[in-house]
# Entry
Amino acid sequence: MNYLDGKDKVIITFLTIFLAIGGIVTLRSQIRYGSPFAFITGTSFRTQPRKAPEQQQQPAVQYRTATVKEGLNLRPSPNTNNNPIKVLNQGARVRVISVDQGWAKVIDDTGTEGYLSNNYLQY
# Structure
């Protein structure tokens, strides 16, 4: 029994679902309508496994090592406007990340990061 006449219209719908556990599912439905009734005349599924993200190797970071010449304030920013984070004693070793406008961004032996005046570091 066919309720559809020759002037039927067809809608094709796509529903794509991205699964959190990995992969993609696409549902395709074909719906015919044109009379008082509508029919789903075809449905198909397509799946795609989720690709693992490509891992890029981070380049090895090369730090310069320096020694504090005399007791020095480790600061949170490259200026003297803020209170020091801590004081590094003479002879303390630091890893220098960068130097800009007379200030060295450093990491001390406890992992604390801050800024020191580059004039008081010996490389």
Observations:
- Residues 14 and 28 are 5 Å apart (CA to CA).
- The longest strand covers residues 38-48.
- The beta strands are 9-18, 24-33, 38-48, 64-68, 72-74, 86-88, 93-100, 103-108, 113-117, 121-122.
- The domain at 64-122 is CATH 2.30.30.40 (SH3 type barrels.).
